Amino acid sequence: MEESKIEMMIQGHEIWLEESKNGGKDVELALVYGHNMRQDGMADETRLKAFNYHPDGSKYDLKLIADDKRYLLKFKAEKEGSYAVVVDMESSILCKTKDGNKRGPRSQFKDVTYAGAFHQMAKIICPVGGDGEYSGNVLHGILETVPSKPWFQVGQEAEMQVFYEGEPLAFEEVKAVSKKEGKQMSLVKTDDQGRARIPITTDGEWMFLVRHKDPSKKVNDMFDESVFVSTLVMETMM
After folding, report:
1. How does residue 1 score in pLDDT terms, banded at 50, 70 and 90?
2. The whole model's pTM is what?
């Protein structure tokens, strides 16, 4: 089971946040692990930290509540505006060897063909009320996607900007997945300013995923590169 989960993460499994219950100001979200918004397994709670960024810029810790192969996050939105919830999964070193997949630094194993340090972050924008504040700024994490507004509309293009270490990330792929359709809808590259425009063709929740490899962030005898995976989930409306 452990080897299978390592292989899934190396090949592209990710965490994301989605709406669990629509309760107005009583917000309930779910943190899910899988691929293309289809659940497959459960993330390791000991490696997760959750934060809630309020419309006024304040930041609060959130508790993760285990619930049927996922985690719930609950908070009360006392003020109208856009809340951004982020879950950070700390880095884990994963190795591929001739004897299978292992968790731990390269130096612990023989015949390692690949070793990467994987760090994941999930983010969701929760707009509450019609005319509240929205701050389109980098909030958290080394790799982050910032949307131009707190929700998108069917028939228009979703506009967003990707940042790496606080700077626009040029010419990186952004994958768009529709939960309603259950599949990848498009794959686009950011421009020289890290901006991407993606056509929205159906309503419901969409996930925008960026996966960035940085070979300069390596540690000899531990891992060959750092791999950052960031997901942003947004509500789209008719």
Report:
1. very low
2. 0.92
Residue 217: burial class (beta carbons within 10 Å; 0-12, 13-18, 19+): middle
- Residue with the two structure tokens 């590169």: 225
Q: Which residues contact 158 (CB under 8 A, 6 or more apart)?
A: 147, 148, 152, 176, 197, 198, 199, 200, 206, 208, 234, 236
User: Which residues, 6 or more positions from 159, have their beta carbon under 8 angstroms from its beta carbon?
Assistant: 147, 148, 149, 195, 196, 197
Give 21's strand partners.
28
Give the three-class secondary structure for 54.
coil
| Residue 175, SS3 per DSSP | strand
Encoded tokens for 137: 């700024």
Q: What is the DSSP letter of 28?
A: E
Q: Which two tokens stand for residue 200?
A: 């929205």
| Alpha-carbon span 32 to 115, nearest angstrom | 25
pLDDT digit string, tens, across residues 104-141: 999 999 999 999 999 999 999 998 876 557 878 899 87
